[in-house]
Amino acid sequence: MSLHVVQAANMLAVVDYTTGRVNSGWLKIGLAARISQALHLMRESDHWLPLVEREE
């Protein structure tokens, strides 16, 4: 799994939601959230971003 999978799931969720497949869209959002948690994407950026980028 990777960040690209999370991004793709979110894009597919938007397509589903805007074309009337609301339940399928929410399912994909949930999937993306669980993958994000498994990848530890919810960590504070202060720990891994360079100082220059943190200040932006």
UniProtKB/TrEMBL annotation:
One of its GO terms (biological process) is DNA-templated transcription. The keyword Transcription regulation applies. Residues 2-50 form the Xylanolytic transcriptional activator regulatory domain. Keywords: Nucleus, Transcription, Transcription regulation. It comes from the Eukaryota. GO terms for molecular function: DNA binding; zinc ion binding. This is Xylanolytic transcriptional activator regulatory domain-containing protein. It comes from Petromyces alliaceus.
